[in-house]
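Weekly sync, protein design subgroup
Attendees: M.S., D.O., the rotation student, P.L. (late)

Item 1: inverse folding check
M.S. brought a backbone from last month's batch and wanted to see whether the design step gives back something sensible before we order anything. D.O. pointed out we never logged the input encoding, so this time it goes straight into the notes. Structure tokens as presented (223 positions):
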């Protein structure tokens, strides 16, 4: 499997490349955002390790432009480790987030976890009531209204729709949407659900995303 490392510190980039190659991966490196974006879009990679603080183009901008063209899994690497920093990175389309400094063993475990994610189902369109989710084009509509979602909002909606009628706990959502175990006292899921609900429910009479007090969230048509 091929991995792209976009990291502006040469020693770190070399260290990561050597470690991944010893783990039987093929690895390429880019030392700035511009070069990294070019490689990410012009080559086929199974995973991208992306530093946030980069010259030429910062990591979040690189991530945004990658997501406009491809859905390659992206693991963000950064010294910024607040919950808000994680939220911004994940909302921008990252699949996972690792704070510097980190142990190489943890990085390798996260890389393997991302690469183990199952291939997409042959089903390309999901529906709940009047809401249609196109998994290929990553488009969402309710009736004739197009709904614009961020990458993480789309991932959250996809999970809820695939398990419509099931009550999903916050821990289940974080492990499946972000593949990160957040502390139980953080409200990242509540914030994400609130933003999603504002887009898919607030403008419409029939509400689909419901809170089950003390348990979690469920997507279903209760009309």
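Designed sequence read out in the meeting:
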């Amino acid at each position: 499997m091929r991995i792209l490392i976009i990291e502006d510190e040469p020693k770190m980039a070399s260290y990561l490349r050597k470690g991944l190659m010893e783990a039987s991966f093929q690895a390429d490196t880019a030392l700035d955002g511009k070069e990294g974006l070019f490689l990410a879009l012009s080559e086929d990679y199974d995973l991208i390790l992306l530093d946030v603080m980069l010259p030429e183009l910062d990591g979040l901008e690189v991530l945004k432009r990658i997501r406009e063209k491809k859905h390659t899994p992206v693991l963000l690497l950064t010294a910024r480790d607040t919950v808000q920093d994680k939220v911004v990175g994940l909302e921008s389309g990252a699949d996972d987030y690792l704070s510097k400094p980190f142990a190489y063993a943890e990085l390798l475990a996260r890389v393997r976890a991302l690469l183990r994610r199952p291939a997409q189902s042959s089903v390309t369109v999901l529906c709940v009531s009047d809401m249609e989710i196109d998994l290929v084009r990553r488009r969402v509509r309710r009736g004739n209204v197009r709904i614009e979602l961020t990458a993480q909002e789309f991932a959250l909606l996809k999970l809820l729709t695939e398990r419509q009628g099931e009550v999903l706990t916050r821990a289940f959502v974080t492990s499946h949407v972000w593949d990160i175990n957040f502390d139980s006292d953080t409200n990242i899921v509540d914030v994400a659900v609130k933003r999603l609900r504002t887009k898919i429910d607030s403008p419409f009479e029939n509400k689909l995303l419901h809170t089950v007090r003390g348990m979690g969230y469920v997507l279903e048509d209760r009309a």
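Discussion: The chain has eight helices and eleven strands. The longest strand covers residues 2-6.
Action: P.L. to compare against the previous round before Friday.
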